[in-house]
Amino acid sequence: MDLKTPVGKASGIYKKYAGRLEKLGIKTFEDFIYYFPFRYENYSLVSKIEKVQPGEIVTIRGKVSDIKNEYTKRWKNLQKAKIEDETGTIGVIWFNQPFIPKIMNKGDNVSLSGKIDLFKNKLVMQSPEYEVIYKNAGTIHTGRLVPIYNETKGISSKWIRRQIYKILEEHKQNLLEYIPYPILEENNLIGIKDAIENIHFPKNLDTAEDARKRFSYDEFFLLHLRGIIRKNEWGKKTVSNIFSINKFKKEIGEFLSKLPFDLTTSQKKAVREIFQDLASKKPMNRLLEGEVGSGKTVVATIVMYLSYLNGFQSVLMAPTEILAQQHYKTISELLTPFGVRTDLITGSKKWKMKNARPAKLGRSGEKWKMDIMVGTHAVLSEKINFKNLGLVVIDEQQKFGVEQRAIIRKKGKNPHLLTMTATPIPRTVALVLYGNLDLSLLSDMPKGRRIVKTWLVPPEKRIDAYKWIENQIKRQKSQAFIICPFIEESESMATVKAAVKEFEKLKNIFRDFKLDLLHGKIRADLKEKILKEFREEKTNILVSTPVVEVGIDIPNATIIMIETAERFGLAQLHQLRGRVGRGNKQSYCLLFTDSKNDRTIRRLKSLETIYNGAELAELDLKLRGPGEIYGTAQHGLPALKIASFSDFELIEKTKKEAEKIFPELSKFPDLLKKINSLTLSQVSPD
Ligand code: ADP
Ligand code: MG
Q1: How many angstroms separate the Cα of 581 from the Cα of each of 294, 470, 602?
Q2: Which of 271, 288, 297, 332 to mutate to test the pocket of ligand 1 (most atoms within 8 A of CB)?
Q3: Distance from the CA of 253 to the center of ligand 1, in angstroms?
Q4: Fold for the domain defined by 453-610
């Protein structure tokens, strides 16, 4: 057995537990030692028995002079022991652990760590951590900083600790250093053997901190390197035909002049950057990042038009049917006058919409012959083959998995890839996550946009708020979204039920208006009808689960009211409020929460004054940690083991170091091996 051996291939208990261990991400013995504790229990204060004080957390060492099981009247059982050292004797008590007297016998030398209590005026140690001391062996579970690991059913932290201790005893010497020595030295980092030892069994909090520092460095350094390698790999691909730009200046100019608006400065810049990529023989791999409403669709449309002019097909993939339908509408309206044929394909069979039909694929194996295909993940279907796919656009790319992004790309010969996202992402996260991509930012909003006035409404003002909404809708002839209480991450029947209930309640409140309900379980054709009626102002209020989060564009809607706001990340709330404020009327966002928690209230109130998505994402990062910035079920996020996305300095430093070493990477085979062993979940999108 060596560190690369899968636990399932080992004997006995490991084999038996392989399934459970996999739940913790432990597949090999190496994974075991890279399974880090999330905190330490400090049991390092060792005390003589006569010195212990009530309330103290201490470790005592001594001989078992008595130990037994005791059954009480109420069918409970206790384990009672007496421990003595050269200064005295102390009673110990456990509850419902009848196996303890089998592990510790009278006469054994033991070490116990736990809290000293006063019971009937006598000192006792209650439910301590315990272990028998064999000859000269050190202690693992007591008398030191004891690592605490995340557990899973059937696998305790104590068990994990014992295994790691054993594995380290046997294999620590075989651990190979993969970070080049000069980097360790320059950054004051400890070597891998010490780091592994000290992350699990530190002598004190300082050595634990040294280990944490070393592995935080590793984590970012390796992710950056991985990104750079991938970018470099991508750069070796070549497209089937280089796009010509100069040849179509006139056509593009004409298209721009027919737009109902002028492009913003950053839209122009993004188009320039993209065109530059397209003029190269290596395929573009660019992320277009811009707040909701910043106008990414029109940028993508221009690019798809250029692709068409160059004789290539394009595909635009969006994460929801609603979005796909909306994109189809926008793009076909803009491009049909220029002779571009656009088609829509979604998973729903009951598709009915004027001028649209399911993409005509003809007989199986036949290639699709129109110019632009807009669709949901349905475009990934094996049945869909392109004649000549030159450009792939993925909207809200974070909603797709690595594999889905790969499948769509394979439908062409190294097509250009433009991914888009409105997820406001702190700069630090972007540096790590998107190291392999080129980035274009839409940093300014289209002219005339006003900020969405936002209030956190106290519960006692709810009725007033409903009245206010009613008046606004009547006076401004505008419309409102009401986002239902958020119940579960994935939209299940419970969410739907709650939404229906909320809808019935709201219908009673807003009797003068027409209300409609939208949730994830509604059939696609109905969804489209509901949205169409809302867009055509036949409906005044659209009650919805958070499915409207992504992308939909209804300029006449000026109010969004959000229930259980505390369950969303700030960036997510910002995205939700981006559903309004898309036209030129003043728009409003009303947040509701039942939370009385000060911190929650303050967190939500920050939306009243901060209108910048990235800033809100940073704030979330600080207040709630990285897991929360992205909200519901997102793909492609590297799960940091130990480092923190708020460690800006380290992210920048490791990035520089990674860039510096990259050209000489072949000189460091162990480092390369380590990078290649990073699992897929730690890898950013293409
Ligand atoms: P997002 O970036 O969130 O995808 P959209 O592309 O849906 O934003 O654009 C939001 C709205 O802004 C659309 O109605 C679009 O027509 C409009 N828009 C886009 N660019 C401009 C611009 N430069 N000036 C005015 N309106 C614009
Ligand atoms: Mg969009």
Answers
A1: 11, 18, 24
A2: 297
A3: 19
A4: Rossmann fold (3.40.50)
Task: Tell me 516's DSSP state.
Answer: E
pLDDT tens string 205-263:
999 999 999 999 999 999 999 999 999 999 999 988 899 999 999 999 999 999 999 99
246-279+295-421 and 453-610, same CATH topology:
yes
User: Which pTM was predicted?
Assistant: 0.75
Determine the distance from the C-alpha atom of residue 448 to the mean position of all C-alpha atoms in its chain, rounded to a whole number. Answer: 33
Return the exposure string of 17-55: e unless at least 16 CB atoms fall within 10 Å of the residue's CB, then b. Answer: bbeebeebebbbbbbbbbbbbeebbebbeebebeebeee
Q: Where are the domains of the chain?
A: 1-39+159-172, 45-143, 246-279+295-421, 453-610
Ligand 1: residue whose CA is nearest its atom 4:
296
CATH number of 246-279+295-421: 3.40.50.300
Number of Cβ within 10 Å of residue 160's Cβ equals: 23
The C-alpha atoms of residue 82 and residue 102 are separated, in whole angstroms, by 15
Among 614, 583, 576, 648, which Cα is nearest to 443's? 614
Ligand 1 atom with minimal separation from the 553 CA:
7
DSSP class of 677: T
The number of the ligand nearest the C-alpha atom of 289 reads 1
Question: Which CATH number fits the domain 45-143, given the four candidates 3.40.50.2000, 2.40.50.140, 2.60.40.10, 3.40.190.10?
Answer: 2.40.50.140
Query: Among all ligands shown, which has an atom nearest to the Cα of 300?
Result: 1
Min mean pLDDT across 145-149, 466-470, 568-572, 661-665 is at 568-572
Average pLDDT over residues 113-124: 92
- At residue 445 the predicted structure's pLDDT band, cuts being 50, 70 and 90, is confident
644: pLDDT confidence band, cut at 50, 70 and 90?
confident
Closest residue CA from atom 9 of ligand 1: 295
Q: Which residues surround ligand 1 with Cβ inside 6 Å?
A: 261, 263-264, 267, 290, 292-298, 422, 446-447, 551, 553, 555, 582
Closest ligand to Cα 575:
1
